[in-house]
Design goal:
Beta-Lactamase, 24 strands, 6 domains, 23 helices, alpha+beta
């Protein structure tokens, strides 16, 4: 028995040595999750001594997330035990938790947990082993990352391989198509070469012909076999005088420099001479020129045409010299005159010798970029027709019409310009316009004369008629003793007709603005106020008038004419509402008219007085709105108005440097607005007097009371 106890004690000692020297931390919790034992290796793992560690709570050992996981696991196990389910002594579970060191840092640990039971089988605690798995977890994460990267690379590479395979299939199909097209193109190329006049040939650095296109037979009469393998001299197709030039150009191309245009004289097999334009480029291999490929085009006909064109230009020059129109040719590159005829000299005053070599600016002509219009194609242009005021050499000025067209002159881009003197034509046009204006004036005078004659005829008819009646009544008085009242009534009608004649004459004088009267400062507010009082007795009983007048609206003008403007506007409104009745509204304000509106109305700069007279009548039809200010234009019935009232308003307002407008719509009444420049006394202007309505920039600066004073 003693031996057994000694063996047990020896085993415990051995176990303790193993536990205390292990890297893993062994620990035991009671059922309240408090430490009852923890191995000394806790110092290496977490930095706490055993005495410090056993005092810590579980929420101080774990991060909040890991602590929540442990609480959830323990709660689940307790619920199972309460439900009658018990784990056996061999049960354990493994958790990966994030733990907190004494210095505040964290690390990941693998925790193996199992339950402790007493001899009766009751749960008495929790035992576990904690192992640092930071490196393992990092390795696992790295392994996972590598695996994810590998899978991503596999997916990406697989996609790339699929795309490459698809591209390869397309390339195979495209190559098959191209090969078929090349076979077709080669056949077409052969056919084209046999039809074209361009001969293709190549030669090596020894100037021996390597190949020639089949159409050489048609152009020069030689077969390709007769030329291949021969040098320039041996072939004999080049005129000897051009041989030095051919060798020079060949050496230039063999040095790696292309030549795109060079003209040679060739000799056909039957001895004819043909001019050819030759272009050549080097053929490179491994960075070295091993051959030259050239194209020769037959330009014999083109050169003949250019020669004919030069001859034609000479004939054209002779023709231009005989033309009465002024013609010059200007070079596009520097705007200098290259040709001028005698008519150009006559119209500009410069001799032909003086004009040649001068620029358009020196000849007082527009620059080249104004004489052409660009077309859609790059570098292309077309001529223009424009008017220009041309200053002659002697200083005289003429109105000219320029017509330009692009031409090739001496193988250069030029403009041919025809100049027509428009001075006499413009004078004729101005005279025609003057006569047309005179005709319109005569038409207006005729309309005015017809209206005046009509009104005077009505007046004279009234005078003559009532005079005859008065004469008959006087005879009746002598013969029968008739009453004097009838005679007086007839004579009163004669007097009224005479007054209408006087009014008509005054209207005609006002319309013609004669005689001119002296303009003096006038307070429109007082004038309108006084006129409204006098109008009250003459307006129909079914027409009322109301006013909203700003304080002290000063203008400079003729008080009688300004009163006539207001009276005519009110009479016009009253006539419009004579049958149905209604209301006339008058407003007077100081205003700032916006610049654009001021210019459209023709008002001078500065502040304005705005007078508005509106009514609730039937309105003015659209066709008549534009003619309301024409003399003798009226929409009233015959005998209800002279037709001069609004035209007189317009004439008086214009004479006062103002403007008058009308806005109306059928069934919505009419509104006449009169703008007159505000008069400001020099002393008041010097003192900087301001008005609130003016300062605010309003156009409705009315008296705040809104009532007629």
């Amino acid at each position: 028995m003693r031996d057994i106890e000694e063996a047990i004690q020896g085993n415990e000692a051995t176990f303790r040595v193993l536990v205390e020297n292990a890297n893993d931390v062994l620990w035991v919790f009671d059922l309240d999750l408090g430490y009852t034992y923890i191995s000394p290796s806790v110092m290496r793992l977490r930095g706490y001594s055993v005495e410090e560690a056993v005092k810590l709570r579980l929420d101080q050992v774990l991060t909040p997330e890991s602590y929540a996981r442990v609480r959830e696991m323990l709660g689940r196990e307790l619920d199972l035990m309460k439900a009658g389910y018990r784990h056996g002594p061999g049960w354990f579970t493994t958790l990966e938790l994030e733990m907190v060191r004494k210095d505040g840092s964290t690390f990941w640990a693998e925790v193996i947990v199992n339950l402790l039971y007493d001899e009766e089988g009751s749960l008495k605690g929790i035992m576990g082993i904690t192992r640092d798995i930071t490196k393992r977890r990092a390795a696992e994460e790295e392994l996972k990352r590598c695996r994810d990267d590998l899978e991503e690379q596999v997916v990406k590479r697989t996609s790339e391989l699929v795309l490459i395979n698809e591209r390869l299939m397309r390339e195979i199909e495209e190559r098959s198509r191209i090969e078929a097209e090349l076979r077709e193109s080669a056949e077409m190329y052969r056919v084209h070469l046999s039809l074209t006049n361009d001969v293709m040939f190549s030669y090596d650095n020894q100037f021996r012909v390597l190949s020639v296109s089949p159409n050489v037979t048609r152009v020069l009469g030689y077969t390709p076999e007769e030329l291949v393998g021969k040098t320039f001299q041996e072939a004999g197709v080049l005129d000897p005088s051009f041989m030095p030039k051919a060798f020079e150009n060949a050496l230039h191309i063999l040095a790696g420099n292309p030549i795109y245009s060079s003209v040679y004289l060739f000799i056909t097999k039957d001895g004819r001479r043909r001019y050819g334009e030759v272009s050549g480029v080097p053929c490179m291999r491994d960075g070295k020129v091993y051959a030259v490929t050239t194209v020769a085009r037959d330009i014999t006909e083109r050169l003949e045409m250019e020669n004919a064109l030069r001859q034609s230009e000479e004939r054209y020059k002779a023709t231009l010299e005989c033309m009465p129109a002024a013609v010059c040719i200007v070079r596009v590159s520097d705007s200098r005159c290259m040709y001028a005829n005698q008519a150009f000299s006559a119209i500009t005053g410069y001799t032909v010798e003086e004009a040649l070599g001068r620029t358009t600016s020196e000849l007082d002509l527009p620059p080249v970029d104004e004489l052409v219009s660009p077309k859609e194609g790059p570098g292309e242009c077309e001529g223009r027709d424009l008017e220009h005021t041309l200053k002659r050499k002697d200083g005289g000025v003429i109105k000219a019409r320029l017509s330009t067209r692009p031409v090739q002159y001496d193988s250069q881009a030029c403009l041919v310009m025809a100049i027509t003197d428009m001075t006499s034509l413009m004078q004729l046009e101005e005279e025609r316009a003057r006569l047309e204006a005179q005709r319109l004036k005569m038409d207006a005078i005729a309309t005015l004369a017809r209206g005046i004659a009509h009104d005077f005829n009505n007046i004279l008819t009234t005078i003559i008629g009532y005079t005859n009646l008065s004469l008959r009544n006087v005879k009746g008085l002598e013969e029968k003793g008739s009453g004097i009242e009838t005679i007086l009534r007839d004579l009163d009608e004669v007097r009224r007709a005479a007054k209408r004649a006087v009014t008509l004459v005054n209207h005609i004088q006002a319309f013609s603005r004669h005689p001119e009267r002296e303009h003096v400062p006038v307070d429109l507010c007082t004038l309108v106020d006084r006129t409204i009082e006098s109008l009250g007795a003459t307006l129909p009983s079914n027409v009322t008038i109301s006013a909203n007048l700003a304080a002290s609206c000063m203008v400079k003008g003729d008080p009688a004419q300004l009163e006539q403007v207001f009276t005519n506007l009110c009479d016009n409104a009253a006539h419009a509402m004579g049958k149905t009745g209604g209301e006339i509204t008058v407003s007077l304000a100081r205003a700032t008219v916006p610049e654009g509106e001021r210019e459209a109305l023709g008002l001078p700069a500065g502040r304005c007085i705005v007078l508005r007279v509106s009514d609730t009548g039937p309105g003015i039809p659209g066709y008549a709105l534009s003619r309301v200010f024409d003399p003798y234009f009226t929409t009233t019935w015959k005998g209800e108005g002279s037709g001069l009232g609004l035209s007189i308003v317009h004439g008086i307002v214009k004479a006062h440097e103002g403007a008058v407008t009308c806005t109306s719509a059928e069934g919505q009444g009419a509104c006449f607005t009169v703008y007159l420049p505000e008069y400001v006394d020099d002393k008041e202007l010097g003192q900087g007097t301001k008005d609130s309505a003016w300062d605010s920039g309003r156009t409705d600066g009315l008296d705040p009371s809104g009532a007629h004073r």
